[in-house]
Design brief:
The structure holds two protein chains of two kinds. Chain A is mainly alpha-helical. In chain A, about 45% of the residues are buried. The longest helix of chain A is centred in the middle third of the chain and has 45 residues. Chain A is about 75% helix and about 0% strand. Chain B is mainly alpha-helical. In chain B, about 85% of the residues lie in helices and about 0% in strands. The chains are: A mainly alpha, B mainly alpha. At the A-B interface, helix 1, helix 2, helix 3, helix 4 and helix 5 of A face helix 1, helix 2, helix 3, helix 4 and helix 5 of B.
């Protein structure tokens, strides 16, 4: 891992906070479809266009991004900001990637939504969008399952947790923690 | 008002802290907080907001947090929910990124995350089932669901296609 303060700019000079802000504003404002769609765009910007981080350093960033809590785009933006300009760089990158969401969604929630909430065509659109979103969520579960549930133990663990969650109705946080602890106990050698 | 702001912050903080691996990992958590625990939204409203969050640029859970925060407590609410959902990332990455990097590469972390991801598959499946009851209500909605799920199992496509197809079929088949 390269040290977090490594300056990887082509000239070795410090990147301005404004450049960091504008780069991540662009990522936040023009990338649709959430985390896995945003990561390739961030890579294009910071590895290829701006050469802020090298390919292997970006791979390190992704390891942390995917293993820790939080949104993928946000986690990678903060780490890149920190590498360029320390804590303030991380904050500016976070602001950049978040601000477009807040502004756009505020416009929709405060202005467009009240205006069109009672329109029957809007009702019709959402009538079709709801099952589409449920299909997206179900597909996410199946695709994640296909990627990670290879060993028998993983599948059994998933089934046991599913049944436990249905019967006990506990908060999902408890199910996640139970899964993690079970993973520590049974997945030492082979789970996936 | 202060009470609502504080519980919004705390709820979305929890969502941010336990969304591991990004993407749809946040759905079961947000559903539990927003629908089951606090009753802030119905399942149908929640799905509508996720659909809007998918259609708009930026991270889906930040979009959803902003919309839900606004619905509950205006502009202040939207800023508080967004702040709540990003606080765990900020704290962990600004203060602990070196420790995290060492920690995440230990074999125990790998085992823990593998178990956690198994739990995640179960939770997302369960969320699809419970939200589905508010969405899949008649023959056209069953058809939309089955069509899109089947398509996605054959080939992974961008969420935007789901949104476009869902919207068009909704316009055609809605019982006006």
């Amino acid at each position: 891992m390269t040290a977090p303060n490594t300056l990887a700019g082509p000239s070795g000079s410090k990147e301005s906070l404004l450049t960091i802000l504008l780069t991540f504003l662009k990522v936040g404002a023009f990338t649709f479809g959430g985390g896995y769609a945003i990561l390739p765009v961030i890579r294009q910007e910071v590895v290829i266009n701006r050469r802020w981080v090298a390919e292997d350093a970006f791979a390190d960033i992704l390891i942390i991004t995917q293993g820790m809590p939080g949104q993928l785009a946000l986690n990678s933006a903060i780490q890149i900001g920190v590498r360029l300009r320390g804590t303030i760089g991380g904050l500016v990158a976070a602001l950049g990637v978040t601000a477009p969401s807040v502004i756009i969604l505020l416009i929709i929630a405060a202005w467009l939504y009240p205006l069109y909430r009672d329109n029957q065509y809007v009702h019709a659109v959402f009538y079709g969008l709801r099952p589409a979103v449920v299909a997206l969520i179900a597909a996410a579960a199946f695709n994640l399952g296909k990627d990670i549930l290879h060993g028998t133990r993983g599948i059994i663990l998933c089934a046991v947790l599913l049944i436990t969650a249905i019967i006990s109705q506990v908060h999902p946080i408890l199910v996640l923690v139970a899964g993690g602890v079970a993973g520590l106990l049974v997945c030492k050698r082979e789970c996936h | 008002m202060i009470q609502v702001i504080l519980s919004l912050y705390w709820s979305f903080f929890k969502v941010g802290l336990f969304t591991i691996g990004g993407g749809y990992a946040m759905i079961p958590l947000m559903e539990a907080e927003v629908i089951d625990t606090h009753g802030w939204l119905s399942a149908a409203e929640f799905l509508d907001i996720i659909a809007v969050a998918e259609m708009t640029p930026g991270p889906v859970s930040i979009n959803a947090a902003t919309f839900i925060g606004y619905r509950m407590a205006g502009v202040a609410g939207s800023l508080i929910t967004t702040l709540g959902v990003i606080t765990p990332s900020l704290v962990l990455l600004l203060l602990l990124s070196k420790i995290l990097f060492t920690l995440i590469q230990k074999p125990e972390a790998e085992s823990f995350l593998n178990g956690l991801r198994s739990a995640l598959v179960a939770l997302i499946l369960l969320a699809a089932y419970s939200l589905g009851q508010a969405a899949i209500v008649d023959i056209p909605t069953i058809a939309i669901f089955v069509l899109l799920l089947a398509a996605s199992l054959i080939k992974q496509i961008s969420p935007l296609y789901y949104i476009a197809i869902g919207a068009i079929l909704g316009l055609i088949f809605f019982p006006y």
